[in-house]
Amino acid sequence: MIYRSHVLVCGGTGCTSSKSFDIIDEMNKLIRENNIDNEVKVLHTGCFGLCEKGPILVIYPEGATYSRVTVEDVKEIVEEHLVKGRVVKRLLLGDKDAEDVSRALDDVGFFKHQVRIALRNCG
User: Would the CA dihedral through 11, 16, 18, 23 be positive or negative?
Assistant: First the structure.
């Protein structure tokens, strides 16, 4: 099945301890309630490398990266971003006043100047 949006939720140790699995459960519940479960796929991923800003949630195809997401934030993300197509700026990682949403984590200041070397077991 082809989905219009993919929601990637960090499942690294830091994000898991900050209730990323509860976020996934709540997101799936609200996606079903809004009848968009055939359009949006929620996926549990490995660590994004931003543990201090977790839980991290990335929505594609926009590449919107949300940080410090709580279970209480999920309703706003589903209703605004996934249903209405409007990014929730207050939860965005990085510059909240930016016009464009970062398309890749490589555009975030923390990663911008890093060079990935060891990739064998990455992602």
Answer: positive
User: Average pLDDT of 94-114?
Assistant: 61
Query: Cβ(54)–Cβ(14) under 8 Å?
Result: yes
pLDDT value, residue 49: 84
What's the CA gap between 95 and 89, in Å, rounded?
Answer: 9
What CATH number did the domain enclosing 82 receive?
3.40.30.10
Query: Which backbone phi and psi does 92 adopt, to 5 degrees?
Result: -65, 145
Instruction: Identify whether 65 is part of a domain.
Output: yes
Region 97-121 average pLDDT = 62
Q: Does residue 121 form part of some domain? A: no
More confident residue, 107 or 19: 19
Res. 119: pLDDT tops 80: no
Q: How far apart are CA 30 and CA 93, in angstroms?
A: 23
Please count the structural domains in the chain: 1
